[in-house]
């Protein structure tokens, strides 16, 4: 068991180090030699866990789509908003997520193994379909269209926020994005009850941590 746990920690450490390299220099310029230097592991040890750089990229992308922090809410539309707010809160703090986004917009990487955007769209669409069935969306709102366009808008806001010289918090910018979107898709009764605060994600993660069982 101890050996297995050590292997899991080593694998995680390799992914985190490679994610940092992807962020710093991009997919193509990130090399195994640089990874060896950064981790202190031998090439043999690296290849034991990941046979290629591409497999490491797949490992990073696999961590991108998550419902971490999302708690059941009265309205499914709130859970959909929470999905985007939580990602905005976590992205600047978690290299693995930042690297996954960077790989998704890197043309070279994208041609090799695609992106996780379809998975984010599907996750959002599932919540929006439930919201539609519950009468939380306006009659004209189409879950598939909203999910697809919202992921595109979210990604655009993230890239622009990161590139602008002003010190803007991604959580605040994404909160504004939802404040613009929701009046066009949410039913009047639900709209007034939705929380789009940029601080909501932090509160959700704190609540999720409190609710985790102690082993």
UniProtKB/TrEMBL annotation:
Coiled coil: none annotated. Residues 8-68 form the HTH tetR-type domain. GO terms for molecular function: DNA binding. Residues 31-50 bind DNA. InterPro entries: ArpA-like, DNA-bd_HTH_TetR-type_CS, Homeodomain-like_sf, HTH_TetR, Tet_transcr_reg_TetR-rel_C_sf. The keyword Transcription regulation applies. It comes from the Bacteria. It holds the Pfam family TetR_N. Keywords: DNA-binding, Transcription, Transcription regulation. Transmembrane segments: none annotated. This is Gamma-butyrolactone-binding protein.
């Amino acid at each position: 068991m101890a050996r297995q746990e050590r292997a899991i920690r080593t694998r995680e450490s390799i992914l985190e180090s490679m994610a940092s390299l992807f962020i710093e220099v991009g997919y193509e310029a990130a090399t195994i030699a640089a990874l060896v230097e950064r981790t202190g592991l031998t090439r043999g040890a690296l290849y034991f866990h990941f046979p290629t750089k591409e497999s490491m990229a797949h490992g990073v992308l696999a961590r991108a789509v998550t419902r971490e922090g999302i708690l059941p809410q009265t309205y499914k539309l709130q859970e959909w908003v929470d999905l985007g707010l939580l990602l905005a809160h976590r992205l600047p703090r978690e290299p693995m997520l930042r690297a996954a986004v960077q790989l998704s917009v890197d043309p070279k990487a994208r041609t090799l193994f695609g992106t996780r955007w379809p998975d984010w769209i599907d996750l959002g669409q599932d919540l929006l379909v439930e919201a539609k069935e519950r009468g939380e969306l306006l009659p004209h709102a189409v879950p598939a269209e909203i999910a697809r366009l919202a992921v595109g808008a979210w990604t655009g806001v993230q890239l622009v926020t990161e590139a602008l010289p002003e010190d803007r918090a991604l959580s605040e910018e994404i909160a504004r994005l939802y404040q613009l979107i929701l009046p066009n898709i949410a039913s009047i009764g639900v709209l007034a009850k939705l929380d789009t605060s940029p601080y909501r994600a932090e509160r959700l993660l704190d609540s999720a941590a409190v609710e985790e069982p102690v082993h």
